[in-house]
Structures are given as C-alpha cells and as structure tokens.
Amino acid sequence: MDAAGYTALTRQSGLMREMQAIANNIANASTSGFRREGVIFSEHVSRLEDSPSLSMARASARNIDLSQGELSETGGSFDFAVQGEGFFLVETPRGNRLTRMGSFTPSAEGELVNPDGYRLLDQGGTPVFVPPDAGKVSMAKDGTLSANGEPLARIGLWQPQDPTGLIHEGGTLFAANGGEVPMEGGVILQGQIEGSNVNALSEISRMIDVQRAYELGQSFMEREDNRMRTVIQTLGR
Fold it and tell me: Which of 24, 193, 191, 96 is CA-nearest to residue 16?
C-alpha cells in the first residue's frame, strides 16, 4: 500500500471510532446523567527522504461534553441533581468514581446507594448514612441532609484535580486521572434528576455526515486499489 492508501486507512479508522461514539451517544440519549462524547482528530506529519511529507490522521482521544443536561422533577427524597459544575462521588470496587447520575436509595444498613449498589460519599469521602427512622429528609442547596431539623450529612460535590484527566469508564461513571478534589459553591437540588445532555437529532445528523465521509474514503481506497492492480498488470506483461 502506498502513502495515499495508508493516509486514507488511518482516516477511515478514525471515522469508525467517531461512528461508534455517536452510536453510543444515541443509545444513551435517555440515560440519566450521561455525558455526550466525541473523538478528537489530530494530524501526524512525517518527513520522508526525497519525497513530500506524509500526513496521517489519528483519532485516539475522546472529548467529553460536560454541558448541563435537562432537569426533571421526580419528587423523590433521594433523587438529587447537580446544577452547574461538579460531580457526585461514589465508591466502587475499582475505587472512587465521579458521576452526574443522582438517583439513590437507602440500603438495608441506611447508606445511600445508586442503582448499581455503589455507596454515595459525603464531602469528607465517607458513606452517607440516613437512619431508617429519620422520617422526612430535606436537603439544602449546599447538599446538607436534615431530618426533623437535625443535620445528618452533607453530600459532597467533587471535580477531577486535572480537568483534562476525566476518563469515561462506561455508563455514567468517570475516573479522575490524578484523583478528585472537593469543590465549593456547587448547587444540589432535591427531588430532581439530570437527564442526558445528548441531543438525539443532532447526533443522527452527525452520524449521516460521518457515514458519508466514510463512504467517500472507502470509494477512494477502492479506486486506489484498482489503479495499483492496473499498474502491476501492465508492468507484468
């Protein structure tokens, strides 16, 4: 394969990764707390001896869209939504993880857990505990949970120490490369859930554009293959 073929192949590989990201976005358009993803294309230029430089496309980095999703009322005492920046912190078998999905329920031990059974952590990094006999639980915008006027815990808001070190592990969980740190000034709303920030119509339009670009690249590679076959057959006579 010549330089043009290799360049087209790397571009096709990147477009395939972008198509997979778009398909995953569309599949999670109704997933609470989901963050839209894309891929970042970069160009690698290699200098060749006695030939023009070779440009190779690459799409290995992911871009996470952290814009606010739509908030919806649920009325649930343990449904929380972050307004603005920040993440909830949950404890998983792989370590602490950040999430914007704020639907929790009390476990048999009284600890708040998400649908996967991961414990919600407070601003100090310890599990949030609500006594079974606490009665009606209310929450202030700073995340302080109270029952009968007595504070129970303060749900923490967290952010990655390195803003570029956020790694999507799948679903609504994110790992923070370099660790996570508590943040001040965030707002948590009770009785609401944040939806996905994916616009399904925009993603479908984007998918069509990427598919057309992929088809054009495939057509170019087929023409290049036919050209090389013709040259080889001609020289072999």
Answer: 24
Residue 162 φ then ψ, to 5° = -105, 110
What is the per-residue pLDDT across 49-82, written as a single tens digit (0 to 9) for each? 665 655 555 655 578 899 999 999 999 999 999 9
DSSP 34-71: ---EEEEEEEEEE--TTS--EEEEEEEEEEE--PPPPE
User: Residue 136 is encoded by which pair of tokens?
Assistant: 């009606």
pTM reported for the whole predicted model: 0.79
What pLDDT is recorded for position 43?
A: 57
Cα 122 from Cα 117, distance rounded (Å):
16
Q: Which residues of the chain register pLDDT less than 50?
A: 1
Alpha helices in the chain (DSSP H): 3-27, 200-235
Residue type at 235?
A: L
Q: Starting at the edge strand that comes first in sequence, how are the strands of the sheet with 150-154 ordered?
A: 137-139, 144-147, 150-154
